[in-house]
Specification:
The complex is a heterotrimer.
Chain A (H helix, E strand, L loop, with lengths): L2 H32 L6 H19 L2 H22 L9 H23 L15 E4 L2 E4 H23 L1 H11 L1 H6 L4 H23 L9 H16 L4 H26 L5 H26 L10
Antiparallel strand pairs in A: 1-2
Chain B lengths: L1 H22 L2 E7 L6 H17 L3 E2 L2 E9 L4 H14 L4 E4 L3 H13 L3 E4 L5 H4 L7 E3 L5 H14 L4 E6 L2 H14 L5 E5 L7 H10 L3 E4 L3 H13 L8 E4 L7 H4 L7 E4 L8 H14 L5 H19 L7 H10 L10 E2 L5 E12 L5 E13 L11
Parallel strand pairs in B: 1-3, 1-4, 4-5, 5-6, 7-8, 7-9, 9-10, 10-11
Antiparallel strand pairs in B: 2-3, 11-13, 12-13, 13-14
Chain C lengths: L11 H22 L4 H25 L8 H16 L5 H23 L5 H20 L9 E2 L14 H24 L1 H11 L1 H6 L4 H27 L1 E2 L6 H14 L6 H19 L4 H14 L3 H7 L1
Antiparallel strand pairs in C: 1-2
Classes of the chains: A mainly alpha, B alpha/beta, C mainly alpha.
Chain lengths: 305, 389, 315
């Protein structure tokens, strides 16, 4: 295997990881700070993709699509939070799971009604339909854009969390929510802000994934599981954990998908190896998570308590 | 006179009774992938089928139709449930549509064991053309391999030496690559099968580039094709290598791909440009009614509706007489959009296959130009395994 | 004693339970009389999923352990039938024995591992094991991979035959009744009482000297075995075994059924399963977009009927 190939596969893993991070960051904050299991996060991702694709088809401008996706999901997230989810904050996780599961069904059907059951396709923005040369390897420029944009957002989140007052409140809320509200901070406002941020990040992830994957009803359901794995590995409530967890999962899955079949072909028949390879690579993530849960149940980079 | 009036009355009653019997709506179950990335294929099949039904005033063969549409969602376990419902609850005698081969294989045994006719206008898995053929199964499109066989013959004729092949990992994917190899007659430098629901080919394209082939053969139907060809173009390989395909750039994906598909080679028994009278009529009517150019999935579905139209008329609506209905279907007495069309003894077609290239025509539309006809009057390679007469 | 507690046969609870069970028993008779044999298949699905939901209820409802991985056992049962039938072993009793053994062993091992975690960790790790089995199924191309495998004929439970749908239905119903009775007795026995006490306050129970883990693992194993039986029946009903039977959304469906019906009630999961399958199948026949109504309905049920539909009746 050439170094060039390894580099390209690693970049692919990085790109997948970055998309996972955008989803995981929001979900881990909501779970860790608000102690709220939000399965409907998958629906926000899906809505981001649909709104972005629709705006892009209408205007041809990726920036407009981006705004539509982010602001749109922010709005949807806040509306859903105020009307429905508020009633479930005090309930136990099981009720939250049931309610947000119902929301997933609703949103999946909603997009089917509005946009139809078939997939919607979105092209990459003008100027990013070609390739770039990176250290001798050619790599699609749009995917490179995704990596750069994702890392930029990660950096911005880091600055927000560690160098602003709001970030300080969020970190405090992650460690001790009760204390924060006792100290007079408007917890309800903070929660709404947090939920909005989480929704916007999910929407952004959906938009960026849209040119790469197919925009279709239920597109978030499979990703949701991987995102849950990421936050368990990283540590619930921890942005840093979400970041590293996402990168680990992204790289392991992508590199595993390519190299496992090659390794397996040495020991098994070709079509068996080609079917088993990606399946085992996907299993790898779960095995890794199980190991983390067994040895370090609070995650690799837990939010400091 | 009294006798004459009684006779008239008798004749009138019989006429009324038979016409009443003929007027019971005949139920046809239409199954297909109607959602997800492959939803556009099933939808084209359905729209083309209904074009014929509605043009005839809701009838096929003079019999009023009740078309029960069901989405199999590209999931074999869902397809099983759908077929159970169609056969046991709705009691349909005929099933049409059938988009994907893995779904077809999952429900096949149940359908033919229940003596229900299944007229597939897209899927054509090799076991059904070969060893597991049944008098109740008709393949109206082609046996899967054939679209690949024509491209393999084209590649052999062009003298490519290092061919790299990619397809999804399911029955049709394997059939297509096997078909390509059968007529290319040389070993491939690599065969890659990706999971059926994998939409991101970046990793595989990187490996492909590293292997330095001189031509690439790919089979990625529907939404997979859109993703594959787009990513192929984005990876920069499109300028360096010829891309030979089957069912990857077709009427469904071309409108989405546009200039990304230029120059791609496409093996098929049909294109909207073929100059047969029924084809010209079909393309014009489809475009007028649905505001889009029909794909080959629509074309073969249209043919299957015409087939049913002629066969049901031949048995005067009495599809319960299975022997007679089968014979009527086998006669294939209709004008196909593909020109010549007849069934082989295994109830799969014998037809011409072409190699097309994607071009932009003077009107600015992306379409196909015929490059060659490598396999005229071609029968599938599994017919000899079918014991039927 | 047949009944572990004094049953007030005139209470709303007893009447509802009796009606539900009686309706289930009469379905094939009515369906055949109306020449709608298809509904036997539908009802069989309900009964099979009810069995799975009752199994899950043991750990989820009574034990307070939120398992999102019970689809693993459904998959195990289905593939036990599928693979054995593929290799020519069609004896139903053998299928049953293998299913129980397999689910028992795997339930015990995974139970011990999973119960080391709590809260979200437990949910995720149970889910992980189910997904691992799903991917294993997908990778086994010789057994169909993700296209699944046909089961040529139904399990042979000589002297009984389940080839006919009505026969299969009554067989499944008998197993469901047995499961309900087993649940009822377990829950009211000392075992069940310890389990429920551990659900409300595990720390206190430990301090009192109860080996909680042993009780929880046992409940988990029993629950897994019963779910495996549901898988065996499902493979027989559909004559098909697929990795999709072990996908996490099936676990989710079971959880929803338990919650819809009523946690920690014996008959609740049956009602939950019936409502869910009927919504999915029958309502879907009327309108393509049924989920736009079902979604909010589930949210409302979660909000208002705190103890599920059956719990609603109980109040």
């Amino acid at each position: 295997m050439t170094w060039e190939l390894l580099l390209v596969q690693s970049l692919n893993g990085l790109q997948y990881g970055v998309l996972l991070f955008l989803l995981a960051a929001g979900l881990t904050l909501v779970l860790g700070i608000m102690n709220f299991v939000n399965l409907a996060h998958a629906s926000l991702y899906m809505m981001g993709a649909y709104l972005g694709a629709a705006a892009f088809a209408k205007t041809g401008s990726f920036l407009v699509a981006g705004a539509a996706a982010v602001l749109g999901t922010l709005a949807i997230g806040l509306i859903v939070e105020r009307t429905t989810l508020l009633a479930f904050y005090a309930r136990d996780h099981l009720d939250q799971v049931l309610a947000t599961f119902g929301l997933i069904l609703f949103f999946n059907e909603l997009v089917r009604v509005i946009w139809g059951a078939q997939s919607v396709y979105m092209r990459p923005p003008q100027g990013f339909t070609g390739t770039v040369d990176l250290l001798g390897a050619t790599y699609p420029s749009y995917r490179f854009l995704v990596i750069v944009a994702g890392l930029a957002v990660a950096l911005a989140l880091y600055v927000l969390i560690h160098h602003t007052r709001v970030g300080m409140l969020i970190r405090a809320g992650a460690s001790n929510p009760r204390m924060v509200s006792v100290l007079g901070v408007n917890i309800r406002l903070l929660n709404s802000l947090l939920f909005g941020l989480s929704a916007a990040l999910a929407g952004l992830s959906g938009l960026m994934a849209a040119p790469i994957l197919a925009v279709q009803p239920g597109m978030g359901d499979n990703v949701l599981i991987v995102v849950l794995v990421v936050i368990v590995i990283g540590g619930i409530g921890s942005i840093r954990g979400a970041f590293f967890g996402a990168l680990i999962v992204g790289v392991v899955d992508t590199v595993g998908r390519t190299y496992l079949p090659l390794i397996l072909r040495q020991v098994a028949e070709r079509s068996v190896a080609d079917a088993a390879g990606p399946a085992l690579a996907s299993m790898l993530i779960f095995i890794f998570m199980a190991a983390v849960l067994a040895l370090r149940p609070q995650g690799l980079f837990p939010a400091r308590r | 006179m009294m006798v004459r009036s009684k006779l008239f009355g008798f004749i009138a009653a019989v006429a009324l009774a038979t016409s009443a019997a003929a007027q019971q709506p005949l139920k046809i179950g239409f199954i297909g992938e109607l959602s997800g990335p492959q939803g556009a294929l099933g939808q084209d099949q359905y729209d083309a089928f209904m074009l014929v039904v509605e043009r005839n005033g809701g009838k096929l063969g003079g019999v009023p139709m009740e078309i029960i549409k069901e989405d199999t969602q590209l999931k074999p376990e869902v397809a099983n449930q759908v077929i159970d419902k169609l056969i046991e609850k709705d009691k349909v005698p005929i099933i049409a549509g059938v988009t994907f081969s893995n779904v077809f294989m999952a429900v096949y045994k149940k359908v033919v064991d229940s003596k229900v006719f299944i007229i597939s206008s897209n899927a054509g898995p090799s076991p059904i053309a070969g060893a597991q053929c049944s008098p109740y199964a008709f393949l109206v499109n082609n046996q899967n391999d054939e679209r690949a066989e024509v491209v393999g013959k084209y590649a052999a004729d062009k003298g490519y030496k290092r061919v790299y092949a990619m397809a999804p990992n399911y029955q049709a994917g394997k059939d297509f690559i096997a078909g390509f190899k059968r007529f290319y007659k040389q070993p491939l430098i690599e065969e890659v099968y990706t999971p059926l629901n994998q939409l991101d080919f970046q990793a595989e394209l990187a490996q492909l580039a590293a292997a330095k082939p001189d031509a690439v053969y790919a089979f990625y139907p529907g939404g997979l094709g859109i993703q594959f060809v787009r990513q192929w173009r984005q990876s920069g390989l499109a300028d360096k290598l010829p891309l030979l395909t089957s069912s990857t750039v077709d009427g469904i994906t071309l409108p989405a791909l546009q200039e990304a598909a230029l120059g791609v080679i496409h093996g098929s028994p049909w294109s909207p440009e073929l100059d047969f009278p029924e084809n010209r009529r079909f393309v014009a009517e489809f475009e007028k009614k649905y505001n889009r150019v029909p794909s080959e999935y629509a074309a073969t579905s249209y043919d299957s509706a015409l087939l049913l139209d002629s066969a049901i008329a031949k048995v005067k609506g009495n599809v319960a007489n299975k022997e007679a209905f089968r014979a009527a279907l086998k006669a294939a007495d209709f004008r196909s959009v593909r020109g010549k069309f007849r069934f082989n003894h295994n109830q799969a077609p014998i037809q011409d296959f072409y190699a097309f290239v994607v071009v932009k025509n003077p009107q600015g539309r992306y379409t196909y130009q015929e490059l060659a006809k490598p396999l005229p009057d071609h029968a599938d390679s599994y017919a000899s395994q079918c014991p039927m007469k | 004693m047949v009944f572990p507690e004094q049953v007030d046969w005139r209470s709303a609870r007893a009447i509802t339970a009796t009606i539900v069970l009686a309706v289930l028993a009469l379905v094939p008779v009515v369906a055949i009389a109306l020449d709608q044999a298809f509904y036997i298949t539908l009802a069989a699905r309900i009964v099979i999923f009810a069995l799975g939901a009752c199994a899950l209820n043991l750990v989820l409802g009574y034990g307070g352990l939120v398992s999102f991985g019970h689809a693993l056992y459904v998959g195990l049962g289905a593939y036990a039938v599928g693979i054995m039938a593929f290799h020519g072993m069609t004896n139903g009793w053998l299928h049953l024995a293998v299913t129980l053994a397999l689910c028992g062993v795997i339930g015990w091992i995974t139970g011990l591992i999973c119960l080391r975690c709590q809260g979200i960790g437990f949910i995720m790790i149970t889910l992980a094991f189910a997904q691992m089995f799903y991917f294993l199924g997908v990778s086994l191309k010789q057994y169909g991979g993700d296209d699944g495998m046909q089961v040529a004929s139904r399990s042979d439970f000589a002297p009984l035959s389940i080839e006919g749908n009505a026969a299969l239905y009554y067989f499944a119903l008998a197993l469901l009744f047995a499961t309900l009775y087993l649940s009822w007795r377990l829950v009211h026995a000392r075992f069940g009482r310890v389990l429920r006490a551990a659900k409300s306050n595990a720390r206190r129970m430990r301090v009192l000297g109860f080996p909680i883990l042993r009780y929880q693992v046992t409940a988990y194993v029993v629950s897994g075995c019963l779910c495996g039986i549901a898988g065996l029946l499902l493979a027989n009903l559909t004559r098909f075994a697929s990795p999709a039977y072990a996908y996490w959304t099936v676990s989710g469906d079971l959880v929803v059924m338990v919650m819809l019906g009523g946690i920690a009630t014996v008959v609740g999961p049956v009602i939950g399963a019936a409502v869910y399958v009927i919504l999915e199948t029958v309502v879907a026949g009327y309108t393509e977009h049924w989920m736009i109504i079902t979604g909010p309905v589930i949210v409302l049920i979660a909000l208002l009927a705190r103890r599920g539909l059956y719990g609603f009746v109980l109040r």
